[in-house]
Amino acid sequence: MSYKIAILGGGVGGLSAAHELIERGFAVSVFERNHVFGGKARSLYVPNSGTGGRRDLPGEHGFRFFPAFYKHLPDTLKRIPFPGNVSVFNNLVHATRIEVAQAGKPPLILTARLPQTMEDWLLAFKELFEGIGVPDDEVLFFADRLLTLLTSCPERRVSEYEQISWWTFVAAASHSAIYQTLLAEGLTRSLVAVRAQEGSTRTVGYILLQLIFGILTWGGFDRLLSGPTSEVWLLPWVQYLSQKGVQFQPDTTIKAFNSDASGLTSVTVEQGGQQAEISADFYISALPVEIMTGLVTSEMKTLAPSLAHLDSLRTAWMNGIQFFLKQDVPLDFGHTLYADSPWALTSVSQRQFWQQANLADYGDGQVGGLLSADISDWETPGILYGKPAMQCTAQEIKDEVWAQMKAHLNVAGAEPIRDDNLLTWFLDPDVQFPNPSAVTNLEPLLINTANSLQYRPNAATEIPNLFLASDYVRTYTDLACMEAANEAARRAVNAILTKTGSTQPPASLWEMQEPDCFKPLIEYDRLRFRMGLSHTSIGPI
């Protein structure tokens, strides 16, 4: 029997679920509210910017990057054909550096090294953060906090670290202002888009460690795509899935879930201004949490108590702005992290990675470089207008980001950011301005606040024919990102395989990797935890 699966949402989670299901013989349909598929990952082209037969300028919701700890999404990319390049996975380019920029100071460049023992790790952590102006004793304390996380058992991570904020765990309140700005706040806001005072230590701390592992052990912080996201990944993906038999339904808005005591009976959608009912054997919701929250009915909450508290999960803003330049400004071969910028900026100079795209083929042919920046803090006043991004116009947001980048990069006689080199710019259109006093965001990002794990459901809900494939689902990845959406999709598919008694192999899942040298201390801490004892923090060597 070929079971019919309706996937609601065509972002990374929905496409990942479709991929795993179609390769296992299911009949799959994907319903997406936008005209194009890919969700937050899709490219957002600048309307009417292409002339002379050229393509419109390529913008993004935010630059796409694939940290070294990603395992699920790269596995999927390896199974997406790409002409002349074997697979989409081959369109990933390793970034080898991170530039940590501070206003008015020369940048710090982070490169790889290979620690082998626990003592090596402490020294590596210390050296990683030396040179940024934080007092040595505070750097050592921060390194000790990281080692405490690494030597804690999983049970303690959930029982204790999920309950407290990162700000509390790293004792930010009792340390210097520069410690608070650069280590307690700067890293978390820029890398995981969450305020240190709110973010769960279990999420913020361990994702930060995974990113650091990428720098110290795996030869690079992350990987970036070799061209605009849609061109080198998403369009080939949709084409491959279409050829395999996936039915794609764009311009379809999910309006309501319909259920009875047995589960979901249908889903009401709107297409072309007309409402219709879709029915399937199983439903996978790949909708973002803020949309799903509004669709879950009281009857569904009764049937599936794990869905009853989705409204307790919080979202924040993380959106991109692109600066199209006359001449390229390569910066470092990787990310630039503006560690003390009020708006928690990060950026990537894209051209150096775009082996599959020529910028001269876009716009009017005059673009020579592209700086893609992410804004992770929309609530802190900026340096130009004294207003948070949420209270600015689009022009003010552009001016403010440009000014903050100048303050961090135009130092020590260098002037990479010049007004006369800027051709045009493009702000993520999800940021909308319905009136001068209000800014809205169509696609916010889930943030893992302290004690929020309890509100996050599993991929398989208590409703027997409803599954979830979105980044708020409980996963090993444990962060609102493409990797989590892909992993959640795999978990949903595996639950359907079990439910249907399928003999097809399950989709692979990978736990986060941590250095082997810490395993004995983790086992020791597990014993202490079972005895009701606190963690024995490691002191300086």
TrEMBL record:
Source organism superkingdom: Bacteria
Alphabetized InterPro entries for the sequence: Amino_oxidase, FAD/NAD-bd_sf, Zeta_carotene_desat/Oxidored
Domain Amine oxidase: 13-497
GO molecular function: oxidoreductase activity
SUPFAM superfamilies named in the record: FAD/NAD(P)-binding domain (SSF51905)
Protein name: FAD-dependent oxidoreductase
Highest classification ranks of the organism: Bacteria, Pseudomonadati, Acidobacteriota, Terriglobia, Terriglobales
